Amino acid sequence: MLSVQKRENNTMGKGNNKNEGFVTQIASRQENFPQWYTDVILKTDMVDYSEVRGCMVIKPYGYRVWELIQQDLDARFKATGHQNAYFPLFIPESLLKKEAEHVEGFAPEVAWVTHGGDELLTERLCVRPTSETIICSMYSKWIQSYRDLPLLLNQWCNVVRWEKTTRPFLRTSEFLWQEGHTAHATAEEAQEETLQQLRTYRAFMEDVLAVPVICGRKSENEKFAGAYATYTLEAMMQDGKALQMGTSHNLSDHFAKAYDIQYLSREGRLEPCYTTSWGVSTRMIGGIIMVHGDDRGLVMPPRVAPVQVVILPIAMHKPGVLEKANELLESLKAAGLRAQLDDRDQSAGWKFNEWEMKGVPVRVEVGPRDIENGQVVAVRRDTLEKQALPMENLADTLKELLDAVHDGMFQKALAFREAKTVKASTFDELAAGVQNGFVLAPWCGCSDCEDEIRAKTGATTRCMPFDDAAVPEDAVCIHCGKPAVTRMYFAKSY
User: Fold this and answer.
1) Distance between CA atoms of 195 and 205, rounded to whole angstroms?
2) What's the rounded Cα separation, in Å, for the pair 430 and 428?
3) What are the Cα distances from residue 298, in Å, to 142, 153, 385, 487?
4) What are the residues whose beta carbons fall under 8 Å from the beta carbon of 282, sequence distance 6 or more?
């Protein structure tokens, strides 16, 4: 049986004041959530601002999170038959304009290249905001027969969207992302692909990021430009706002018709292909921070934490302490844990403070008395609880503890979302509820009504949920009073 106790006050900083040190440099979430977010990402060396407006520099600690996200998702995509490819950064203007709805939707955000050196280009080049157009132009060359289908591709790359308002990770002019693109023989196959990738994303977000998400379909106003239907994963941040964590689009035959993507069927007929696209981005890192962080800084989900376990030798000047700490480090690394030893010449309190701010899931303390007793002291970042753990089979014990940390973080985030979500039956309830959370309410499906709700409340439609979209026959719209066709989640958003 492991002994468990609350963290002692004198382990936060130098001296006995638990509020000393770095934590005083981070604003309170309750008092100023946007400033808290900015403080956290800068103080923990996740990012820095660049010299280009709206662009961020992702520092090693932040980029390592993205690498771990890539590794996990890439394996999931390949397990479902998708292959990685790479397509050009630049897209000719004429190619972009082939799908009218698509170009209209992205036009305000497009960055254009007009010169090559000192020479004026004969045709402007778009810096890719997304890659449907360039990929579909390739599909028209590559796909000739039913034997070429399905074509399942994925790309890891950067994109540029000239955003008016930016915030690191959440919305930047340039960002890193993953975009999947597939082509199919039938509408049914395309729809199944669209939903399959949504399920893949959900499993990843909940099982790896510990972020609960609501899945559903976007409204016509909010769907991807040029799509038949867009499906989304929505997460609640600690200020009650929604963050779109990822999307999956059924493009039907819209792009196939625009870019002449046809195949010869088994029956010898030329048929249009049905395409999909789906993507997630570095925005997810912002979601991790805003779902799990606290006033001490980051709280990293163990499965994407750059450092899962940090070992802190206590009184390391004493004989045998540093040697034992290094021995433990090597055993943890050999077991596949991302472990690090902090043997810097700083006080224990200073180190506790810094690693808590960086959100490392578990801190392991080892000193002379611990060595004598054949144990270490493990401190969970999510609950700040201490546990005495035996040194024997420590790696296995820590793996179990990390799983418990993940589960605890997920359940905490889920409970928070449920507590901040209301089912409204009147417009006043909707208007009040979206000030600090999600509102699920009956809706008529009318775009004009959607626009009016946004103008009056500042909230947007987030999704028609798969699990709770049906309405009774006599249900009426929360705003206009017309017959309701669905339940819709409303929320303010990033």
Assistant:
1) 15
2) 5
3) 46, 34, 16, 35
4) 58, 66, 169, 172, 175, 176, 177
Residues 6+ apart with CB under 8 A from 258: 98, 99, 100, 136
> What is the band of 326 on the pLDDT scale with cuts at 50, 70, 90?
very high
The residues with which 53 forms a beta bridge, in sequence order, are none
Please give the pLDDT value at position 7. Answer: 34
The rounded radius of gyration (Å) of the Cα atoms in the chain is 25
Other beta carbons within 10 Å of 308? 24
223-278 pLDDT, tens digit per residue, is 999 999 999 999 999 999 999 999 999 999 999 999 999 999 999 999 999 999 99
Region class of 33: left (phi > 0), else alpha (psi between -120 and 50), else beta? alpha
Q: pLDDT per residue over 447-464, tens digit each?
A: 999 999 999 999 999 999
Going across the sheet that includes 4-6, the strands are 4-6, 385-390, 375-380, 362-366, 309-313, 339-341
Question: DSSP class of residue 21?
Answer: G
Cis peptide before 272 (omega within 30 of 0): no
Q: Quick one: DSSP state of residue 109?
A: G
Angle (CA) 327 329 334, round 5°: 100
| The 111-116 sheet, strands edge to edge | 90-92, 119-127, 111-116
Say yes or no to pLDDT of 10 above 70: no
What span, in angstroms and rounded, lies between the C-alpha atoms of 214 and 442? 17
Contact in structure between 468 and 442 (CB atoms under 8 Å): no
The size of the chain, in residues, is: 494
What 3-state DSSP class applies to 493?
Answer: strand
Give whole-number Cα distances, 343 to 38, 280, 313, 386, in Å. Answer: 29, 37, 7, 21
CA geometry: angle 342, 347, 350, nearest 5 deg: 80
Per-residue tokens: 315: 């009184």
All structural domains of the chain, each given as residue ranges with its CATH number in brackets, are 4-18+301-417 (3.40.50.800), 47-291 (3.30.930.10), 421-491 (3.30.110.30)
Please tell me whether the overall predicted TM-score, pTM, comes out greater than 0.85 for this model: yes
60-113 tens-digit pLDDT: 999 999 999 999 999 999 999 999 999 999 999 999 888 777 777 778 889 999
297, two tokens? 């800084």
Instruction: Give me the helices (H) in 225-378, please.
Output: 254-258, 283-292, 321-334, 348-357, 368-373
Three-class SS state of 161: coil
pLDDT tens sequence across 386-421:
999 999 999 999 999 999 999 999 999 999 999 999
CA 44 to CA 464: how far, in whole Å? 37
